[in-house]
Amino acid sequence: MAGCFALMLAAGCANIVSPEGGPKDLRPPAVLQADPPDRSLNLHAGQVRITFDEFLELKDLQSQLFISPPLGETPEVHLRGKSMLVDLPDSLTENTTYTLYFGNAIRDITEGNVLKDFTYSFSTGPVRDSLEMKGRLTDAYSGEAVADALICLYRDAGDSLFTLRPPDYITRSRADGSFSVYNLPMDSFRVYALKDANANAYFDLPNEAIAFDALSFIPQIPPRAPDTGQGMAQRDSLARDSLMPDSMVPIAEDTLRLMSVPQPALRLFLDQDTSQRLLKAWVPGTAHIRLEFSNPVGSLKLHPLDTTFSGRWSLLTFNQTRDSIDLWLLQSAGDSLRLQVTDEHSGWKDTLALSLKERSVTRKPGRAITPTPASERLQAGFQPMRNFFATEPAFLSFSYPLDSLYPGQLWLQGGGDTLEALYSMDTVDPGKVRLLSPLKPGTEYLLICYDSAFRDIRGWYNDSTAFRLRTLTAEDAGSLTIELSGAYDSLWTVELMGPRKEVAARVRRQGVGEVVFTLLQAGKYQLRAYHDANDNGRWDSGFFKAGIQAERMVRFPAELNVRAKWELREKFRLNPE
Fold first, then answer.
1. pTM tops 0.85
2. Is the Cβ–Cβ distance between 327 and 314 less than 8 Å?
3. 8 Å CB contact between 217 and 261
4. Which of 50, 346, 383, 428 is deepest in the core (most CB within 10 A)?
5. CB 560 within 8 A of CB 278
């Protein structure tokens, strides 16, 4: 009998299962009550209790919580049960409307559902300011939305306050770059954005990205939610708005204008550093030094301090923007070199000490790898890649500038012929040799380079090598026609970016009419254009002190799929706002 009872008990236990769970909770916490209520009047120092429908946690409150206008001291915030308690400081200003922005700090304790952009506002006087300002912040170069930047509003029309003190009103940009500043008075404001590097809420460091607008902006009347009897009664009991008209009162013409005033669209940039500085100096290889400067170099003068050279000792090559310089040593300088470096255009001068020794490269802690000694042979490559159009410039490229080249050392095999190739030193880059022989479309070639055909500035010669090439035909090509509009009186640079983000083609022209790109290899392309305001052939960032905005960069919103034997046509508006 006992055994039977045990068997029945075991069978009964086997049937006991845990209750099945319901749908996952995706709902953020909801406010049940606020004491004092949101948008209260005549509220001074004291404690605010906001009760929710579930238990909470506060995440990154120190960085998420903002008070506008800013306070000298941050309110104490803590949790008790399902309530959030906010201790208001004694330093509140009379007759001022304050807004507490909690960002994404409030979330439920079980699933982590975030109550986004929660705000609580109150006034220390008998009237609550009720206007708002909305806008959007994007990166001036990439055009992408900028999140978590400070949006700073100043009543004063001058720019100097942005560099001296925190703003009069403040908020933060959202993930999509949008921002909203609530509970503003009827006034005009200068609007700035700041990626604050030292948490003081104003622009005082060169590495802080900023945005500004030379215009002042007036906040607008927010759109009104549909009225219900309860909502109207609650609103009337809580606050007397400074400019919010009652729904039963005819709306004046001035009020209608406030509902549709322009709102700021800001573009973030790193302020131009107009002072010349040497950013970086290093030794990429034997007899090779690279110098990178903060600004283009007008005329560079180098003076060796501890080393005596006889005759010409160096060769300088500049990049297109003249802010990166390669210094090639034509004579031995030993294990180290000290130089006095002078930019004669700006007057900048500095002393540079460099070690020219071969260094070990550490890949993992405790494991140093010594570089393989140079073979003292000149390395050659070919540009462009293997497949290209016969009309494109073709080069042999070398890792070091050349000192000499010898005729009769390059041969081309292709199309049933073997011919001596024509070539010459490039007039711009001494590390390139241009192929001058005419090439036939749709032909396979073998470019043969014999031993010791070229000598570089170190006296090193090349090994024999060969490159397989293939020229394309018009049947392999697609074309792209872009109809530009929206910018009649300004010069724009239009750039077509290839699959590896390289500039495949560049055109400079007035911002209207057609731009045609022909002989394009099939593939995915991107299109961008920038307003070259100073006509220097490159995109420039802004200069806040001079009131200069970053040059406008516009990117075509879609990827362009170029196909062989097809003409693709697109419209591109350069001033989309």
1. no
2. yes
3. yes
4. 50
5. no
Q: Helix (H) and strand (E) counts for the chain?
A: 4, 44
C-alpha–C-alpha distance, residues 238 and 177, integer Å: 32
Q: Which residues contact 400 (CB under 8 A, 6 or more apart)?
A: 285, 287, 288, 328, 378, 431, 456, 457, 458, 460
Domain range 377-472, its CATH number among 2.60.40.1220, 1.10.10.10, 3.30.43.10, 2.30.30.240: 2.60.40.1220
CA torsion through residues 37, 38, 42, 44, sign: positive
Residue 341 makes CB contacts below 8 A (sequence gap 6+) with: 278, 291, 300, 301, 302, 349, 350, 351, 352
CATH code, residues 31-217: 2.60.40.1220
Structure tokens, 537: 């052939």
C-alpha triplet 505, 511, 515: angle, nearest 5°: 40
Q: Are 478 and 443 in contact (CB under 8 A)?
A: no
200-241 pLDDT, tens digit each: 999 999 899 999 999 999 999 887 654 433 333 333 333 344
Nearest CA among 521, 539, 397 for reference residue 471 = 521
Q: How many CB atoms lie within 10 A of CB 401?
A: 20
Cβ atoms of 189 and 154 closer than 8 Å: yes
For 502-524, the pLDDT digits (tens) are: 888 999 887 788 999 999 999 99
The SS3 of residue 257 is helix
Under 8 Å between Cβ of 328 and 314? yes
As given in the structure block, the two tokens for residue 123 are 């006034």
